[in-house]
Amino acid sequence: MKKILGVYDSPQAHWVGNGFLVNSLFSYNELGAEMSPFLLLDHAAPTKFRETTGRRGVGQHPHRGFETVTIVYQGEVEHRDSTGGGGVIGPGDVQWMTAASGILHEEFHSTAFSRRGGTVEMVQLWVNLPAKDKMAAPGYQTLLNQAIPQVPLADGAGQVRVIAGNFDGHAGPARTFSPLNVWDMKLNAGHRTELTVTEGHTLALVLSGEPIDEPIVGYGPFVMNSEAEIQQAFHDFNSGEFGVMPPVEAQLER
Ligand code: MN
């Protein structure tokens, strides 16, 4: 049986850029060891945006040492990065971005969505990488809703979308560096369900993964194992080693 280790309040919501009003449900700052291999979970509760001809979101910024997983529930998010990865994802779609040795990216509401306005709801999960993979090549996976298996729970209790790992024999589409499960579940009121979680995995919401038993040192967009590696990340970023974002026109042709 899993034991509940703690129940935590989430702090005040804060803006990420001008597009995402998020609550950090947990962060490695306080709960690094307990939540490993997960570093952070931001939830942007449903927020209404008026139509605009401007852009809403976060402009170009770097990351190193981990992966970001963005799940959209309402609205549309547009992403571009220095590996040439990018695209628009909508409700049910997932972006799994591997920053690893270094990536530059931007995250905005899609242009079409901004023009018509509407409600945005999404989560972003940060997944740590083992020390041996922190300097691996960056990458990007788009996981569209139709590629994510939906598994009904017994007795009408709800359903599970298997984004990563495995649930009841159904494998999720995400490639991961360490063993973990990301199950996106809808539970119906008044029902019970039992979930089998791998022995030894950390459990939060229904994210489970093998703990990465290594030091966590993070600063802003970088999460490494030591202060020296964080300084190196700033140095590498400032000397342009994270590459460059492709021009917008070049990417639209892809
Ligand atoms: Mn980012």
Ligand kinds: manganese (II) ion
Q: Tell me how many strands there are.
A: 20
Mean pLDDT: 88
Distance between the termini: 49 Å
Describe what you observe in this structure.
This protein has helices spanning 28-35, 111-116, 227-238, 248-252, and strands at 14-16, 20-27, 38-49, 57-63, 66-74, 77-81, 86-89, 94-98, 103-109, 118-128, 139-143, 150-152, 158-164, 166-167, 170-171, 180-187, 202-204, 207-209, 217-219, 222-224. The strands form 5 sheets. The protein has a 7-stranded antiparallel sheet with strand order 1-2-3-10-5-8-11. It has a 5-stranded antiparallel sheet with strand order 12-13-16-18-17, with no helix packed on it. It is mainly beta and 254 residues long. The structure holds manganese (II) ion.
Describe the structure concisely for a colleague.
The chain has helices at 28-35, 111-116, 227-238, 248-252; strands at 14-16, 20-27, 38-49, 57-63, 66-74, 77-81, 86-89, 94-98, 103-109, 118-128, 139-143, 150-152, 158-164, 166-167, 170-171, 180-187, 202-204, 207-209, 217-219, 222-224.
